[in-house]
Amino acid sequence: MLTRLALFTIRRRKLVLALTGVFVVLAAIGGNNVADHLKTGGFQDPTSESARAERELDHVFGPGAANPNVVLLVTARRGSVDDATVATAGTRLTEALRRMPGIVSSTSYWTLQHAPPLKSHDGRQAMILGAIGGSDDAINHAVGRIARRFDRREEAVTIAVGGRAEIFHEIGTQIQSDLTKAELIALPITLLLLILVFGSVVAAGLPLAVGGVSIVGTLFALRIIASLTDVSVFSMNMTTAMGLGLGIDYSLFIVSRYREELRRGLEPNDAIVRTVQTAGKTVAFSSLTVSVSLAALLVFPLSFLRSFAYAGIAVGIVAAAGSVIFLPALIAVLGRNVDRFVLWHHEPKPVGEGLWHRIAVFVMRRPVAVASSVIVFLVILGIPFFHVALAVPDHRVLPSSASARKVSEQLRAHFSSNEANALAVVAARVPDVASRTHDVAVYAASLSMIPGVSRVDSRAGIYAFGKQLVPPGALTARFNASDGTWLSVVPTETVEAMSPQGEHLVHEIRDATAPFAVKVSGSSAILVDEKAALFARLPVALALIALSTFVLLFMMFGGLLVPVKALVINVLSLSATFGAMVWIFQDGHLSHVLDFTSTGTLDNTIPILMFCIAFGLSMDYEVFLLSRIKEEYDRTGDNTASVAIGLERTGRIVTAAALLISVVMLAFASSSITFIKLFGIGLAIAVLMDAFVIRATLVPAFMRLAGRANWWAPAPLRRFYERFGINESDGLEFEAPPESPDPQSGSIEVAES
Fold first, then answer.
1. Are the beta carbons of 78 and 333 closer than 8 angstroms?
2. Helix (H/G/I), strand (E/B), else coil: 73
3. In angstroms, rounded to a whole number, what is the distance separating the alpha carbons of residues 691 and 696?
4. Domain limit, last residue, from 136, 162, 188
5. How many domains does the structure of the chain reveal?
6. Cα–Cα distance, 410 to 126 (Å, whole number)
7. Residues 6+ positions from 740 with CB-CB distance below 8 Å
8. Which CATH number do you get for residue 191?
9. How many Cα atoms occupy the beta-carbon half-sphere of 591 within 13 Å?
């Protein structure tokens, strides 16, 4: 199959290049505005109790009834917020916010009879609370208009815009800006490194061309997918990083193998065919392993994670297609001109004299000692992961200069109420709710006695420590409805929303006896439900990755130990990476150097996301190395020599590929958004760990210890592999063709065995 594909791309190279050009133009046009169709949310399980509670609140009481998603922080330039001029301005701003498109409700300190929780300690600041209704897109667009309209200074007051909607709006805006910055950093450095690797400007430009095709094609795919389902805006980071990284990696394997075959004396067209048969097979298989690893994200209900599956599968397919179809056609046009504009020549050392060969021999002479030492090292690095604390993103993922973050920090520092972290206890469709005020009162009083609760607001009044503080009135009218009610449980100032104390409070409220069926929502409840959704499906995702990877590796190499070894080694490598991420980002080490604010937690979804991506990337290099080892083993039958030669043959190019993809990932670590920075740095560490530590030590050590058993399988499985395995045994018999399609390109007469 690969032979026929190679022959087709050679004979129809102009057609292939023309079709690729048309595809790129159409994809660029179709995916140009993809960011406008992506979502900023997706961190919540839509089937969870908290999500259902929010939907009931919106349906019965109107959007934003419990948790207004936009805040105007009004600061008096002189005097206090009770001064006549400031009060007039505050009332006017409340009304102006109510008239903004998308706003469904607007209240403030001044319109709620000077409600104490909405006034700061020093009396110089007060809040205006607004609720934006509609979809995530509608909320995002509306809050953008609100920020432009209200973020200003007036004669009497200064207004700043914050709230959950503005936080996510600023995150999305910042990410788009960071993408541009990352591309400007990554592309020139990548080109320079490629020139250093190849020594030729033309050869160095080929991987970048494939990377460009991968990015454009994947953005177009995301635009199509976004028209069918929710896709997170954060997937654009993965599209650009993985598109550039995989595109460069795959084409690096192709171009380097092509040049190697030319050095062996093959004519250009024959070298292309041989390259597609060998490196092309590796690229196709690697793409499959990356896609399978990321497809495991589809088992999770969060659209944030599912979006990365869409992007990862698309980028893997497009990058592989570009490398085995578009790139060979382009090489066929260039022929030996691939090495045009050579800056210097790099002559490979004779077999058995390279650095990576010497490393492999050293390790295989003492495999037990080396493997044991490295495993201990990896386990030590992974120890910090045992105290990982998971949460959902909040304002602290933004840079300290961001307006929404400043507003959130001022609300926390200057206001006595923990209103922003209040939990909503929803009782919708309660029969005769109007006559059950006593039941509500008893329930509110009982909730107010739970440790960690500051007060409970309800239609029966406001309660604290089991006693009524404020009777029913204007302040509690918002809890009334004809077919339901809800209660606002405000935590004490010491209870953070994203903390074990916040989670414990949610469980206490859910376990408390209620006079009617209730559902609990709010930031802490979302955290509890998200963890439950992730952990419930995590075993399924891991099992899918392990099983599919095992099957794919067996189908490619025909042995049972090779897949087992690969799975074990990758888990060891990734545990060390995760330990480093906890040490850096959760514990806050290097926070000043990397310019981020440590929250004492990691985003719930990032470890899962990083595992799937890093696992796929690790398999990328594993497959490339094992392919060369197997190729040598099939030729010689000598396991030890095959390992040394395989490591030597792939050493320089895998080193280059790892450095290149690490540069791309580290460029995205320049993002001002903390979890994007974590994503970039974490993947860079995972790639470098795998390419240098794992490849140089554990792989040759384990391969040496297993010996010929690496390729062993029971007789039934051996027969199955020989019949159905990915074992294309194309042999090349280079003969002078009767009529070469391109006399300058050499022979393409191939006999398929």
1. no
2. strand
3. 8
4. 162
5. 3
6. 11
7. 269, 746, 747, 748
8. 1.20.1640.10
9. 18
Residue 729 lies in a domain: no
In 3D space, the residue among 599, 227, 552 whose CA is nearest the CA of residue 390 turns out to be 599
CA-CA distance, 122 to 189, in Å (whole number)? 52
Lowest mean pLDDT of 151-165, 223-237, 313-327, 508-522, name the range.
223-237
* Residues 531, 522: Cα–Cα separation, whole Å: 14
Instruction: List C-alpha distances in Å: 621 to 87, 150, 260, 554, 628.
Output: 65, 52, 18, 16, 11
Other C-beta atoms closer than 10 Å to the C-beta of 354 total: 19
Same domain membership, residue 583 and residue 482: no
Give the whole-angstrom CA distance, residue 732 versus residue 390.
55
Structure token digits, residue 359: 């490393």
Tokens matching residue 8: 């087709």
Amino acid at 155: E
Span 70-78, mean pLDDT? 93
- Do 242 and 335 sit in the same domain of this protein? yes
Greater confidence (67 vs 268) lies with 268
| Beta-strand relationship, 519-521 and 467-470 | unpaired
At CB < 8 A and 24+ separation, what contacts does 44-48 make? 44/302, 44/526, 44/529, 44/530, 45/301, 45/302, 45/529, 45/530, 45/532, 45/533, 46/301, 47/301, 48/526, 48/529, 48/530, 48/532, 48/533
Range of the domain at 480: 423-521
Residue 400 lies in a domain: no
Handedness of CA 247, 249, 254, 255 (dihedral sign): positive
Q: For the residues 393-420, what does the mean pLDDT come to?
A: 85
Residues 387 and 517 in one domain: no
User: 519-521 and 453-458: which strand pairing?
Assistant: unpaired
Instruction: Summarize pLDDT for 239-297 with one digit per residue, the tens.
Output: 888 888 888 889 888 988 898 888 888 999 999 999 998 888 889 888 888 898 899 99
Cα distance between residue 730 and residue 666, in whole Å: 40
What does the block give as tokens for 465?
Answer: 């420590």
Boundary of a domain, candidates 130, 162, 194: 162
pTM (2 d.p.) = 0.82
The continuous run of DSSP H or E covering 469 comes out as strand 467-470
Give the type of residue at 61. F
Q: How far apart are CA 395 and CA 303, in angstroms?
A: 20
| pLDDT confidence of residue 350 | 62
Same domain, 158 and 199: no
DSSP element (H, E) containing 160: strand 157-162
For residue 136, what is the domain's CATH number? 3.30.70.1320
Determine which helix (DSSP H) or strand (DSSP E) holds 491, and give its type and residue range.
Answer: strand 484-491
Total residues belonging to the chain: 753
Identify the burial level of 242 via C-beta atoms within 10 angstroms of its C-beta, where 0-12 means exposed, 13-18 middle and 19 or more buried.
buried
Is there a contact between 619 and 570 (Cβ–Cβ < 8 Å)? yes
Which two structure tokens, joined as six digits, stand for 587? 């514990």
The token pair that represents 411 in the structure block: 């609300």
Same domain? For 517 and 576 the reply is no
Provide the CB-side half-sphere exposure for 324 (13 A, CA): 25
Question: What pLDDT, on a 0 to 100 scale, did the predictor assign at position 306?
Answer: 92
Write out 314-340 in H/E/C secondary structure.
Answer: HHHHHHHHHHHHHHHHHHHHHHHHHHC
Tokens of 336: 């030996």
What CA–CA distance (Å, rounded) separates 155 from 149? 16
How far apart are alpha carbons 116 and 370 in whole angstroms?
66
> CA–CA separation, 69 vs 64, rounded Å?
7
Same domain, 158 and 180: no
Exposure b/e, 697-706, CB count within 10 A at least 16 = b: bbbbbbbbeb
pLDDT value at position 52?
A: 92
Q: Tell whether the model's pLDDT for residue 646 goes beyond 70.
A: yes
Instruction: Answer yes or no: are the C-beta atoms of 750 and 270 closer than 8 Å.
Output: yes
Exposed / middle / buried, residue 349 (Cβ in 10 Å: 0-12, 13-18, 19+): exposed
